[in-house]
Amino acid sequence: MLRFIGRRLLFLLFLLFGVALFVFILSHLVPSDPVAANLSQSAMNNPEIVAAFKEKWGLDRSLFRQLILYFQHLLTGDLGTSIRTGNPVLNDLRQFFPATFELSIVAMAIALILGILFGIISAIYRNKSIDHVIRTISISGVSIPSFWFALIMLNVFSSVLGITPGPGRIDSRAATPEGGTGLLLFDSLISGNFQLFSDVVMHLILPGTVLGFFTMGLIARQTRSNLLEVMSLDYIRTARSKGQKESAVIIKHALSNSMIPVITVAGMGFCNLLGGMVLVENIFAWPGIGQYAYLSAVSLDFPAICGVSLLIAFIYVVINLLIDILYGVIDPRVRYR
Amino acid sequence: MKKTGLLAITLMLALSLFACSKKEGNNIATGGTSASNADTIVIGVASDWKTMDPARAYEVYGNFYFYATYENLYMVEGSDLTPKPVLAKEYTVDDSGLVYTFKLDEGHKFSSGNPVTANDVVFSFNRTKNIKGNAAALTEGVAKVEAKDDKTVVVTLKAKDASFLSKITGNAFAVLDSKVVKEKGGSDAADASTSDKASAYLDGASAGSGPYVLKKWTANTEMVLEKNPNYKGTVNASKIIIKEMPDPNTQIQALEKGDIDVALSVGPDQVKSIKAGGKSKVVSSPTSTISFLLMNNKPEISKEMANPLVQQAVRYALDYKGFQQLAGDGALLPLSFVQKGFVGAKSRPDNYQNIEKAKELMKQAGFENGFTVPLTAANYDSEGLSWITIAEKVKEDLAKINIKVEIKTGEIGVVIDDYRNGKAPFIVMHWSPDYYDLNNQLAFIPGDIVGKRANWDPAANSELVSLAEQAKVEIDDTKRAEISSKMQDIMAENSPYAFLVQHPKSFAVSSKLEGVAYNDLCKLHLNDLKLSK
């Protein structure tokens, strides 16, 4: 297992190198000029200002020289400085990632819990009314555009019904606390500020549900079909004939053996969830990586674009690695292959 | 039993969380501040902030912040764009029109407690100039700045400039606490573009004498401003929180729910949902942002659009009233390149559109049967009106004179390159002034900033070039208005532009909020805002 993990980590290094190279080239192929994107029209008319901008951001060097410099900096852990925010990209990622991480974990938890639960119920009550309802919800989850769903949910649950709070990570009249990990759930618990903790939880529910809805649909559909397949196998009939309770048959025998494809789907769902983050973060005014990526892209902030791409690639590989490890945990046969 | 107990505990926990979150006026975590929520104003924006350093910023929302935290020699007040003295008491100009002497007002202090002196003004102006950032475009006309004594500043210009006073109302001329900024690595030396290191400090703290101080700024997230205890005047709200909300619909929802008091970055479509007499109200005010079509004057790029007769036909074929409706309540129709509010501005006559005349011009140009032309419209908007919507309306209007428009779209960062390099044959653009004076609009004359984008050579209209030179230095308002009027008449008949509409700014505020006056330079004067009880 250790050798397997080591191999995957080595692969991760190559992948990150490839992603960095690819994004660098792609960013510079865009038929646009960062000088034009970042200087005003009047400033563009002043050669001294243009020269100072190019010198500051290394744009006066050849593309090849810029690439070499970029990789030299990358090797020392320096992702460069964002043209838009003026901060080191690593600091920006550190600042915005916790909000995204917190939201995606909550979204994934909602997706997994509801997805598996819906999948089981749907399989047990196959072709009954409840199965049809759950299947409709699951299909909606997969097919509804997340930005539209986010707007509707915010309007209904926050504005009309007033059940959930409005956009943002915490109450709008409270300033986000400084310091700590940036994971507000964790920070508020550690500091014993339970009022803040409850506020953070309430603010997470709606965006978490919206973001997790797509993955929930995928998981519910996958759980249902796998469970139905497994439950028609001989060993389930044997378990039933031994007089085991139906709940024990489903949870102990059927469910655990139908989880591997569900984990694969959940992993893919997590990666998809990162894709949906840009729109959901915009609508819920969630200061995370999605917003940072979008703003960096529209202002042609090459160092930031490269930084976000590397982070996302890193997450993809780590998630896939975790899924592979989980296969071994759930199904011991995988470890001995 | 076990399961029931677990369920009961879970339910209780959920209910208690819900109850906590519903408490009014809770003081959850105020980042180390103890201000009462009742005295806190929350504003939702989709800002374009990149830096909080006055010497580097030029963003649209820049002065929204700088007006709250810094003071200038002259600034604008209320909705008016006329410069009024703030740090200066008065000024005089010598006979050459080049030397401005400002006498400083007494009693202004920076938030550090240091008094505002002439040396601070000299440091601030030189720093902006030598940092050579975006803001330096406004200081390039300044030859030198000197402190004659503690309370007298002498500014010498390179050439006469009738707009100088307007220029100093913006962030490029905000006055910084030189002692504090120098301590934090700031420099006003000639090599400040590389030696100045104070920007990082200024992104997290202000160094001005305005009504508020910056307590915290997290890009894309929020800004927290608190009372400056050393401010010379009175400060209304003790705390202002500015929340980044990129989606305009989200801002409206948050306003209606009472989470925020101002939904500032919204457009005419979003404010339609605000009902009169409710918890929120709509504010509409003219801006100086003007949308226009640029028709490239270079035949190699488009022989059709470069034809002056076609350019004139396009101007006559457009349905300006339709554009006015699209832009929303408060939209204006300037005749040409000078917006209402600027000296000598003229309005477009009601019956300007003339399809028959436009067809006749097309015939004279040899294009009676029309032609096909690509129209570039970025995925962008002017005060909430999408450029693609504008392009669709242009397409519909020009079809009446047999011009078949093919709309090309793309992200602004990509599209703007073709525009700035003068390669776009026909493009939808907007112009938002850097400072509020006729001189800023002279960018449209042949050979100037926008003129170059249209490949409009100065030799093409020497009369306009000569009038522009006069306008730049004429300080008599009546004479300047005459020059402005003449230029507008010429541009309305002969230029590679069609000026469509002067946009209004529509936004929504809580009905409890008082002192709301939109100003195109600083958007809102934050210190004028007050929540009624």
Describe the structure.
The complex is a heterodimer of chains A (337) and B (533). Chain A has 337 residues and is mainly alpha-helical. Helix content of chain A is 77%, strand content 0%. In chain A, helix 1 (2-29) packs antiparallel against helix 15 (302-330), helix 7 packs across helix 10 (194-231) and helix 13 packs across helix 14. The radius of gyration of chain A is 24 Å and the shape is globular. The model of chain A has no long low-confidence stretch (mean pLDDT 84). With 533 residues, chain B is α+β, with helices and mostly antiparallel strands. Chain B contains 19 helices and 22 strands. In chain B, the strands form seven sheets. An eight-stranded mixed beta sheet of chain B has the order 8-9-10-1-11-18-12-17. In chain B, a hairpin with a 2-residue loop joins strand 6 and strand 7 (152-157). In chain B, helix 11 packs antiparallel against helix 13. The longest helix of chain B has 21 residues, at 2-22. The N and C termini of chain B lie far apart (52 Å). Classes of the chains: A mainly alpha (337), B alpha+beta (533). The interface between A and B is large, with 66 and 65 residues.
Main attributes of the structure:
heterodimer, A: mainly alpha, 16 helices, globular, B: 533 residues, 4-stranded antiparallel sheet, 22 strands, 23% strand
Summarize the topology.
The complex is a heterodimer of chains A (337) and B (533).
Chain A: H1 2-29, H2 34-38, H3 41-44, H4 47-56, H5 63-75, H6 89-124, H7 129-143, H8 146-160, H9 184-190, H10 194-231, H11 234-241, H12 246-257, H13 259-283, H14 289-298, H15 302-330, H16 332-336
Chain B: H1 2-22, E1 40-45, H2 62-69, E2 74-75, E3 84-85, E4 88-93, E5 99-104, H3 118-131, H4 136-139, E6 142-149, E7 152-157, H5 164-167, H6 178-183, H7 192-195, H8 199-202, E8 212-218, E9 222-227, E10 239-244, H9 248-257, E11 262-263, H10 268-271, E12 280-295, H11 308-317, H12 320-327, H13 355-364, E13 371-378, E14 381-382, E15 385-386, H14 387-399, E16 403-410, H15 412-420, E17 426-431, H16 438-441, H17 449-453, H18 462-473, H19 477-493, E18 497-510, E19 513-514, E20 518-519, E21 523-524, E22 530-531
Parallel strand pairs in B: 1-10, 1-11, 13-16
Antiparallel strand pairs in B: 2-3, 4-5, 5-7, 6-7, 8-9, 9-10, 11-18, 12-17, 12-18, 14-15, 19-22, 20-21
